[in-house]
Design a protein that fits this description.
single chain; 449 residues; mainly beta; Immunoglobulin-like; Jelly Rolls; seven-stranded mixed sheet; seven-stranded antiparallel sheet; 46% strand; elongated; disordered N terminus; Galactose-bd-like_sf; BT_3987-like_N; FA58C
Length: 449
């Protein structure tokens, strides 16, 4: 019995405590209010296809959940006041440039928003102000009947609708040079797939067909932006045999704003006979056509970069086993394999300089599949032309390629692709000099497997 009485006393005390606590759940809540979702200035992109639909949204919010009627009206006095206050020179859009739907909005107690539909006449707006310009506006105000509901702030109950006529475009999502590099090597997959994306700049309601084409002019324009001294960074046009596009036309689905198309890079398209065509390439593509509306001329092309490069053959165990002559005292033959571009081989120049040609023979230690040869010349630019020959036995040599720096080329490094050849020995033959008969080579690399 004593325990029962104690329990009852505890319940009574707990109830009294709860009753004394303040209910603050409604703090910071406001009574019902109305406002434009996009107030002050609402710049509307009106796409140029004749009649353009747009909804202006009025919001009702708060805790009262009241029913209300709200009047939507064009308020010229607000336009004059706005121009004076903001220093603008907007003009009233003539009534024949648009059609407005219901101007009385009925809100039920639980309704949170209503739309006022507009249809803008793009041809008439263009005749007034042209495309991509903002001059003519609609000053709009909302008021509830009987003053039942008020905007949360006065400025939220008015808005300038500013229609701007723009072209409806299909465009590349990321135009220009793409960031995703397609990388190929002699041992990579034979085919690499990728994709590119297009999009409409408008809320698309149709099923669109579009076509893509190769567009070399886009690559020419890109290369023209690269300075002459950096011309080695210019990209070569990817051969037609090195890529494939799926059958066209491609599609952007109805009520879809984006789509992708696939492309395939084909490695064998970068091989001529037994020679790998190593280099830095680009596949330039353009949106050729679209079944409805227009193509954005500023975003109609992309460049897909494709890099095809061989790996270096490690120079471990390499030796320069012969030189036609060498300058002992800074121009030794071993310098072409020391990894330092500031050191070099130089032909004898003291005590009677031998005439061209000069040569060096490198033993790679074992046979490799040679695919390309890279040569770095001394910084004084005297070296002009070097022929390359390879051999399996250091007896019979076959020519495979050359590098030619020319007379005024500031570059010090050149690479030449050669027929894929199994060989152990490489002969470098200097045939021309810009300061004959003197020549110097800083480094020699062989690329392949």
């Amino acid at each position: 019995m004593r325990n029962y009485i104690s329990y009852c006393v505890f319940l009574l005390a707990f109830a009294l405590i709860l009753g004394c606590q303040k209910d603050d759940r409604m703090n910071n809540m406001v009574d019902d209010t109305i406002y434009f979702r996009d107030f002050k200035e609402n710049k509307i992109t009106v796409f140029d296809w004749g009649k353009f639909d747009y909804n202006v949204t009025v919001v009702k919010a708060g805790i009262g959940q009241k029913e209300a009627k709200v009047n939507f009206k064009i308020d010229e006095a607000y336009l004059a006041d706005y121009n004076a206050r903001e220093g603008t020179n907007y003009r009233l859009l003539p009534a024949d440039c648009y059609t407005m739907g219901n101007s009385v909005l009925t809100f039920g107690d639980k309704d949170t928003q209503r739309d006022v539909p507009f249809i803008f006449d793009t041809e008439k707006i263009k005749a007034l102000q042209g495309k991509y310009k903002e001059q003519y506006v609609l000053p709009c105000r909302i008021e509830s009947e009987g003053g039942l509901l008020q905007p949360l702030k006065p400025e939220m109950g008015v808005v300038l609708l500013i229609p701007i006529v723009k072209d409806p475009f299909l465009e590349f999502i990321s135009p220009g040079l793409q960031l995703d590099l397609v990388k190929l090597t002699p041992t990579s997959a034979e085919q690499i797939k990728g994709e590119a994306g297009v999009a409409t700049n408008y809320p698309n309601q149709w099923s669109l067909d579009y076509e893509i084409e190769e567009y070399p002019a886009a690559l020419d324009a890109y290369n023209a932006t690269i300075k002459e001294e950096d011309k080695d960074k210019r990209l070569k046009l990817l051969p037609k045999a090195a890529y494939q596009l799926p059958q066209m036309p491609y599609k952007v689905g109805e009520k879809k704003n984006k789509a992708t198309f696939d492309f395939t890079i084909i490695k064998k398209g970068l091989v001529s006979g037994t020679t790998n065509l190593f280099g830095e390439y680009a596949l330039p593509l353009r949106i050729k056509s679209v079944s409805k509306n227009s193509i954005n001329p500023e975003a109609s092309t992309i460049l897909i970069p494709v890099s095809f490069q061989p790996p270096d053959i490690a120079r471990t165990g390499w030796k320069v086993i012969q030189a036609s002559s060498e300058w002992i005292g800074g121009g030794e033959k071993e310098n072409i394999l020391d990894g330092k571009t500031e050191t070099f081989w130089h032909n004898v120049w003291v005590g009677g300089e031998p005439p061209l040609p000069h040569f060096l023979i490198i033993d790679l230690g074992k046979e490799h599949e040679m695919m390309a040869i890279e040569l770095i010349r001394r910084a004084n630019n005297d070296l002009k032309t070097v022929l390359f020959e390879v051999s399996t036995d250091n007896k019979t040599y076959i020519p495979v390629g050359k590098v030619d720096f020319g007379t005024n080329n500031p570059k010090h490094t050149l690479m030449t692709n050669i027929p894929t050849t199994k060989a152990r020995y490489l002969k470098c033959i200097v045939t021309e000099s810009n300061r004959p008969p003197s020549s110097a080579i800083a480094e020699v690399y062989v690329k392949g497997l």
